[in-house]
UniProtKB/TrEMBL annotation:
Residues 3-115 form the DNA ligase D 3'-phosphoesterase domain. It comes from the Bacteria. Keywords: Ligase. The keyword Magnesium does not apply. NCBIfam families: LigD_PE_dom. GO terms for molecular function: ligase activity. It comes from Kribbella antiqua. The keyword Ligase applies. This is DNA ligase D-like protein (Predicted 3'-phosphoesterase).
């Protein structure tokens, strides 16, 4: 799932359920459908599964303050393989600094990869049938898949 979070800076929290927790990356500019675009992704603390459906406005809290909407929801399939094409478990792939996955979401579909580069990570769209270099879903699809609200409407709701 992907949450749009207006904390100190607006960013998209991309979360993959792995071994009973949500592994999380903050992606300031959001996921891109263009395979030539590399998006900064900052690996953050694991979140509890119950957080997956959260929408609202956080006061100062352990997860950061500000409005949150569920921008996209769905499931993912781990596509990570070793050199012999054997599957690598998602937790191990993340620990190794590279996970390739397919999203089956309401907005995002297709394959992406998170790759660690020094302290940070990059999120890159894999070249596949769902790649769409001319489409920016962060602009064309600003609303929550749960409530239908924009991040601005959520912030104003309190």
């Amino acid at each position: 799932m992907v949450q749009l979070h207006d904390a100190r800076r607006l960013h998209y929290d991309v979360r993959l359920e792995v071994d009973g927790v949500l592994k999380s990356w903050a992606v300031p500019r959001g996921p891109s459908l263009d395979p030539t675009v590399k998006r900064l992704a900052v690996f953050t603390t694991d979140h509890e599964l119950e957080y997956a459906g959260f929408e609202g406005v956080h006061p100062d809290s352990q997860y950061g303050s500000g409005a949150v909407i569920v921008w996209d929801a769905g499931v993912f399939t781990n596509l990570t393989r070793d050199k012999q094409h054997k599957p690598i478990p998602a937790a191990e792939a993340i620990e190794n600094g590279h996970i390739k996955f397919r999203l089956h979401g309401i907005k995002l579909n297709g394959a992406w990869a998170f790759s660690k580069t020094g302290e940070d990570w990059l999120m890159v769209k894999v070249r596949d049938a769902e790649a769409a270099p001319d489409l920016d879903l962060t602009v064309s699809e600003p609303r929550s898949v749960l409530s239908g609200l924009t991040i601005e409407e959520m912030a104003a709701s309190v």
